[in-house]
Every structure is written in structure tokens, then in C-alpha cells.
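sry for the spam today, last one i promise. C-alpha cells for design, 485 residues
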């Protein structure tokens, strides 16, 4: 007899991503955290706990399809009524791991009140949810098996209590360090050991984390007075291997531009001419797989072709044009600095200090510069997506670095708002957190982070709950439309 496993994989449309639930607890005092179960059993066969002790166990969890359906539909009903504030399925590691993950991402302590210790480690189908009082009443009326198991604490500890016995009492910090230890050991052998240690050490410095402080109203549309006048054309420029062009086009279109997809082959073949456009946006990605260095192949396509070089140079020398280079586009435009007026201070972008591709949501501060894209945003501290393997700003010498200082438009910052070189707050290690630059007239701008990937609030993996449809980064594109007027 050969046992057969059935693995079911499925997907479906999401009608409104804004309705998504996360494991982040609300911090409210008037809610309850409950365990909704599809089984009354606490079987440990095949569980992580059994594996830790080198065992298989006797009974493995299973679930009746109709029971699972009832649980799923019940949660959907709770969610539609606004009764659920946070959600996490019980999976690998059981209830205790689920609770820890919710506590850790929320930086809130929790106490599990259990009948038996087996309940903490059983991987039976179920979910842990934070519900309102109305949600708890609704859950009971739906006929779901509701077991209240968690009470929130303020002292950042995870506790497990069975009856009157406190079985586990440990700080989130210590548990986080234990949780991260194996990944750290792998990382320090595979990557730069110094950045690996810096990331691991950050576990013991539970700082402020992500936050947002804007010096402007993100909901204000500074481009609104100009939207009825015209829709200036902006070239959404891409090359082989480039991505994010759809997000870039969407952001510029929303700001009142006509976004035109322009591949480098269109310029080479003469199907498009830069003279038709008021602006160009060089998009992110990995042109030619970065085999010649980040953005190098793309830049050389322009510099080593006389017609293209002249076309770009003429575009840059116009007084009514602008350009934005993001990520791979930033790397590419930096290598065109010799034909971009006022860009002689721009650095090259080389391999991250970690020696790895880094994709993170990090904090930056917008600096006070002439940048046409960042007007009115100076002093704002906002999370933004980074996604690159070669973002280290490398300057030729101290003279170039000093020239760049006054035109640095964006820096990575720590929890206190100070420019930082500390990994992973600074994912590439650039000096003084430099991650964006402009020119003296502000028309030409390069930045490693991706404002186009977070111009809508729903694109962000974390954001303040009171943000509306547009994130603060939408201001970047509206500023450009206001400048064109």
C-alpha cells in the first residue's frame, strides 16, 4: 500500500485588495483574540514539535471539507461586517507560533490560555483572529466553534498558561533572536558577514520600526488645476529585462500625463523620437541581467550609438524637459551624467554592501533640494520600496562627494530620523544614506527606491491606517505635472 497525498492549489480574483487582512493586531483595548477551529482534536503527528523530537507521531490532523467550508464562510461573513481586525491561519508550529508571529509583527505581548499544552503545538486547521465585541457575538451566532485563548499584554512578552500553571514566559526580543538565529548563521556564511551581523544585532534593538511623518497633505492634488488644460506626453522608457513600467505609466497617467510605452528598440528604429516628449522616466529592473554592471548595458546602448547619444543629449539640453530614473533607470542615467547638464556630481551605483539583492520596505527622508519631483515634500519621513542588487552610491573622490552633498534628494534614515549607513535600515550601505540625487535646476532626478510601486496606499505592505487612496509618493508625479503647467 502506497499512501497518496493530494496537494490542492488554487487562485481567484480579488475584487478589492483594500479588504485584505493582516496579522497585525490593532492595539485596541475593546477587542478579543479568538481561536476559530475546524477540529476539536489536538493531534501532533507530523507536527513541527514531533520533528524536533525526532518523532512522527501517531495521528496526523485531517479535516472534513464541509467543516472547513463552514469556517471559511464564517470568517468571510465576519470580515464583511467589519468584525475581524487581524487574522492569521494556524499552520506550521501550531497555535504558539501563530500567536508569536502576530505578537512580533505588532510588537505586542500575548498570553495564551489553554486547556492542555498539546493545544499550543497541534497544527489542526484553524485561525487566530482579533475580533470586535460585535464580531465575537456574530461568530457565535454563525455556529462556529469559538474558543477565546488570548489576552493582550503591554509588556512585550509571550506567555503560555495551562490552568493555573505558567508554562512559558519569554520576551519577544529573546524569542525573535532565537527565531532568527538559523537564518543569521546561513546569511553570515553566504553573504557579507558584517551586514549579516548588523541585521541580527538589530533584533536586540527593537526601535521605532516603520513610521510616517509628512510635511504636506498627501491627499492634496497639486496637479488638479492643470488637468483640464492638456495631457503632456512622457516616455516610459524601458530596455530588455526592465520592469515596473506599468506602475510608472499608471502613476504618471493619474497625475495628468499621457504615458507612452517607449522601448529602446523604438528609438533605435526611429519609431519614436524623444523630441515628442516633455519628460522621460527610465524604469527599474535588470536590463541585460546586469551582466555588464547595473544599467551599464542600457547606458552603453545610448553612449556608443551616435544617433541615440545625440537624441538624448538634445533632449537633456532642452529647458522644458525633465527626466526621472528609478532603480535600474537610476543606474543607467547615472552613467549618462556626461551628457546631462548638472549631473557631473552623480555617483555610479555598484554592488550592495550585503553582496545580495535586497527587496525591502525602508524609511527615507526627503531632503530640501530644487528637485521638481519633490517640491513641498522636504522633511517628510516615509516608507518606500527598494528592490536592487547594486544600489551602493560610489563616488570617484571626495571632491565629487562634496559636490553631491547639497543636491542629495533622499536619504535612508533610522528610527530617530537620522541618515544611516546601518544595514538593513540602509539596504545597500551607501554613504550617509544617499539614495537619490538631483541637478541644480531640479529637472533631472535619480533615485534607487521605487515611488511608482507605492503611489497607491494599497501597494504598501505597511502604512498608517488613516491614509486614503493615494500614498504620499503620488505627490512625486503630481509635482512633475505642476511643473510642466
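last one done:
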Amino acid at each position: 500500500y502506497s499512501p497518496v497525498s493530494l496537494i490542492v492549489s488554487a487562485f481567484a480574483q480579488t475584487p478589492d485588495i483594500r479588504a485584505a487582512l493582516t496579522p497585525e493586531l490593532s492595539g485596541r483595548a475593546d477587542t478579543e483574540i479568538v481561536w476559530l477551529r475546524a477540529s476539536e482534536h489536538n493531534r501532533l503527528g507530523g507536527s513541527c514539535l514531533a520533528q524536533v523530537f525526532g518523532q512522527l507521531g501517531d495521528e496526523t490532523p485531517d479535516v472534513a471539507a464541509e467543516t472547513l467550508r463552514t469556517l471559511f464562510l464564517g470568517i468571510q461573513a465576519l470580515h464583511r461586517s467589519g468584525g475581524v481586525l487581524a487574522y492569521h491561519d494556524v499552520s506550521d508550529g501550531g497555535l504558539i507560533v501563530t500567536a508569536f508571529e502576530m505578537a512580533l509583527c505588532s510588537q505586542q505581548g500575548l498570553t495564551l490560555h489553554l486547556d492542555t499544552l498539546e493545544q499550543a503545538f497541534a497544527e489542526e486547521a484553524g485561525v487566530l483572529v482579533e475580533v470586535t465585541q460585535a464580531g465575537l457575538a456574530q461568530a457565535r451566532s454563525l455556529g462556529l466553534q469559538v474558543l477565546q485563548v488570548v489576552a493582550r499584554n503591554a509588556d512585550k512578552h509571550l506567555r503560555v498558561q495551562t490552568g493555573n500553571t505558567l508554562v512559558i514566559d519569554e520576551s519577544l526580543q529573546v524569542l525573535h533572536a532565537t527565531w532568527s538565529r538559523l537564518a543569521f548563521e546561513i546569511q553570515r556564511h553566504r553573504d557579507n558577514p558584517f551586514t549579516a551581523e548588523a541585521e541580527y544585532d538589530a533584533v536586540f534593538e527593537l526601535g521605532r520600526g516603520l513610521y510616517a511623518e509628512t510635511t504636506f497633505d498627501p491627499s492634496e492634488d497639486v496637479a488638479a488645476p492643470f488637468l483640464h488644460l492638456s495631457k503632456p506626453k512622457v516616455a516610459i522608457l524601458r530596455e530588455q529585462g526592465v520592469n515596473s513600467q506599468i506602475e510608472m505609466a499608471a502613476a504618471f497617467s493619474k497625475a495628468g500625463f499621457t504615458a507612452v510605452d517607449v522601448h529602446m528598440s523604438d528609438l533605435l528604429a526611429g519609431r519614436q523620437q524623444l523630441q515628442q516628449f516633455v519628460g522621460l522616466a527610465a524604469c527599474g529592473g535588470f536590463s541585460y541581467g546586469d551582466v555588464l554592471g547595473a544599467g551599464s548595458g542600457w547606458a552603453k546602448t545610448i553612449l556608443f550609438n551616435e544617433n541615440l547619444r545625440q537624441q538624448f543629449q538634445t533632449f537633456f539640453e532642452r529647458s522644458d524637459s525633465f527626466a526621472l530614473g528609478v532603480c535600474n533607470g537610476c543606474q543607467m542615467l547615472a552613467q549618462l551624467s556626461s551628457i546631462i547638464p548638472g549631473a557631473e556630481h552623480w555617483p555610479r551605483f555598484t554592488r550592495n554592501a550585503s553582496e545580495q539583492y535586497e527587496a525591502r520596505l525602508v524609511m527615507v527622508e526627503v531632503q530640501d533640494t530644487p528637485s521638481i519631483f519633490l517640491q513641498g515634500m522636504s522633511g517628510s519621513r516615509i516608507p518606500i520600496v527598494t528592490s536592487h542588487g547594486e544600489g551602493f552610491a560610489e563616488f570617484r573622490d571626495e571632491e565629487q562627494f562634496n559636490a553631491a552633498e547639497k543636491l542629495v534628494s533622499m536619504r535612508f534614515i533610522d528610527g530617530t530620523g537620522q541618515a544611516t549607513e546601518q544595514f538593513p535600515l540602509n539596504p545597500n550601505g551607501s554613504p550617509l544614506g544617499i539614495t537619490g540625487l538631483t541637478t541644480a535646476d531640479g529637472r533631472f532626478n535619480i533615485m534607487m527606491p521605487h515611488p511608482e510601486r507605492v503611489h497607491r496606499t494599497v501597494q504598501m505592505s505597511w502604512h498608517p491606517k488613516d491614509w486614503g487612496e493615494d500614498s504620499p509618493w503620488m505627490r512625486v508625479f503630481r509635482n512633475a505635472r505642476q511643473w510642466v503647467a
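The chain has a mean pLDDT of 94. ok im logging off now
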